[in-house]
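Hi all, a correction to my earlier message: I attached the wrong file for G-D-S-L family lipolytic protein. Here's the right sequence:
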Amino acid sequence: MKRILVALLLLSYLGHSQSPGPFEKEVVDIQKKYDTIWDASQPTIVFTGSSSIRFWNDLQERFPDHQVLNTGFGGSQFSDLALYLDDLILAYTPTKVFIYEGDNDISAKKRLRDILNTSEKIIQTLQERKPDMDIVLISPKPSISRWKLRGKYRRLNRKLAQLASKTEGVEFVDVWYPMLEKRKLKQDIFIEDGLHMNSKGYDIWYDVIKNYVE
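and the right structure:
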């Protein structure tokens, strides 16, 4: 009887360990896209993270002097990105990577300590695997739909800024305050869902981030 139970537990473990991640199909689609257009002989900048990056459709056009890859995926969190560091970042041997995570972590009510622990592990892994790569953390943004959580977002942003300041090779770019006007959130920079940005929102991001790209 014990042998049967052990066998069943082993089969259950194997089945679980081989199950696809929640974003596996999307990640595979990203890989297929860049298999045909990525030029490995040219320096590469990667932007990755959740949907605010994924929906930034004109990234390459905004930075025409650089090879820019957008590997943003779905409603991802720091813990999701940790599963795909090879597929979405390291496979393209970038000189610099911009990471936008934390937005969905806060919405999912994750503890600040857990979010920061995961972000630190991601940075540590990337620096161990590619020590010469610059890492830029983009602050979680404010939004209409999540404005009630603004206190938690601001605390996370302060912690991410502190993490960057004490870690060589890591920078923090603040997009939070540029999206405000006199401490109030600009209303005309979002699409109908009140969460994702329109072109005006991405104009703000571009104005802030361009200095870190160059």
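Sorry for the mix-up. Residues 34 and 69 are 8 Å apart (CA to CA).
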